[in-house]
Amino acid sequence: MRNKYFGTDGIRGTVNKGNITGEKFFKFGLASGHFFKNQKKNKQVAIIAKDTRLSGYTLEPALVSGLVSGGMHVFTLGPLPTNGLAMLTKSMKANMGIMITASHNPFYDNGLKLFGPDGLKLSDKIEKKIEKLIDGKNSKQLTDPKLLGRVKRLEDGNDRYIKILKKNFPKNFNLKGIKIVLDCANGACYKAAPQLLKDLGAKVISVGINPNGLNINEKCGSTYPSLIRLGVKKFKAHIGISFDGDADRVIMCDEKGKIIDGDQIIAMLAKRWKNKNILKGGVIGTLMSNYGLEKFLRDENIKFIRSKVGDRYVKEKMKQENFNLGGEQSGHIILGKFATTGDGLLVALEVLFSLRKNKRASELLNVFSPLPQILENIIVKDKEVINDSKCKEAIKKANQIMGSKGRILVRKSGTEPKIRIMAESHDKNLIRKCILLIKKSIKN
Asked: pTM of the entire structure?
C-alpha cells in the first residue's frame, strides 16, 4: 500500500494545492514533532532549512507553528543545502531536521524532506506512523501552554556546513590554479558553494546565484547542464559543476564541454576508492543506472547491486549491504564515508580532490562507454494510467520487441505528475520504436 503523503523523496506538490498548504504544513509539523519529541529525553529540538522558493515564506511559519504547538523548540537556518541540514541535525544533536524544498522541480512546487536524529531520511515504516498522526486528532498532540516551544534563527548555518565539509579533506587541500564554472540553480547552495570553492583557492565563475524566489531551476541547474557547457567553453575552464535546487544532486562537464552524469562520477569514485582501499563492499545503483556502469564495475571486480529509484532507497540498500558508495544517474550520489544522504557539493569536492593533480576532467571522468539510453518523461493527469490494461499490453509488447537486445523500465515519478520511460540498447532505432509504442498507449 502506497503512502498517502510521502513519495520517493518526502512530500512534494504544487503550492496552495493538495498537501502543500499552510494548513497541511501545520499538521506536518505537529505530527512529526509529536513523533520525534520522545526520541530524546534531554532535548526537544527541530532544525529547519529551506531552498529559495518564494513559497518558503508561507510554508516555513506554518511548519514552525505546528512544531512549537507540539512542544518542540525550533532553530531555523534559512537557505542551506539538504545535506547541510542533515549534517547539522546530527552535529547539533537535534531530534529531527526538516528541509523545505521541491529539489529540482519548478518554483511553483514545494515540499519537505524529513531527517531523523542520525541525519538519515525516514524509512517507509516511520513515514507511515507519521501519516497516521497527521490524520489523527490534533488535540492529543497539542502541548500545555507552559510547554510551548521557542524559536530561534541561526545565521551561521552555511558556515557550520562548510566547516564540516572541509574536515573531510587534508588541511593542505587547495584548488589553486583550477578554474570552475559553477551553476547553483538559484537554489539552496547559492551562498555555500561559491564561498567554499573560493576559500580553497579556485577561480570560480558563478551563475545561478541570484535567487528571487521564482527563478530556482529556471533554465539553470543540474536539469539544464547546457549552461555549464557553454560557460566552460567560453571561459576555458577546467570543469563545470551544476547543482539542483536543494544541492543534493550534481552534474558536471569536462573541459571539452561533454556532460558528465552521475553514473560516470560513481564509476570514477568507485575505481579511485578501490585503489585507495576506501571502497567498502561495492556500489549501489538503481534500476535507472546505465548498463555500461554495471559492466564496468563487474570488469573492475566491484560488486554492483540495483535498488529502487530514489536516493533514500539507495541509502537503505547501502546500509543493508554495508556498502559506502551509491547513487543515481541523475546526480544523487551518497558518499557513505562522509554523508548520510546525497550531497552535490561534497561529491564535487571529492572529484576536485582528484582533479587538482594536473589531470584533465575529460581523462578523469569519462570512465566507461555508456549503453545508448533514452529517457522520456510523459506528463499525465493520473499516474495510475500505468496500470491501465492498454498501457500494460503496450509495455509487454515493447519488452517482447526489445527481447535480449536491451532493457526497458516504465515507472511513475515519485516527485512529479509524470510517467518515466527509459530504454537502453545498442540499437537506437529499437529504443525509439519501443518508447513510442508505450508513449502512445499512455497518451491514448
From this structure: 0.90
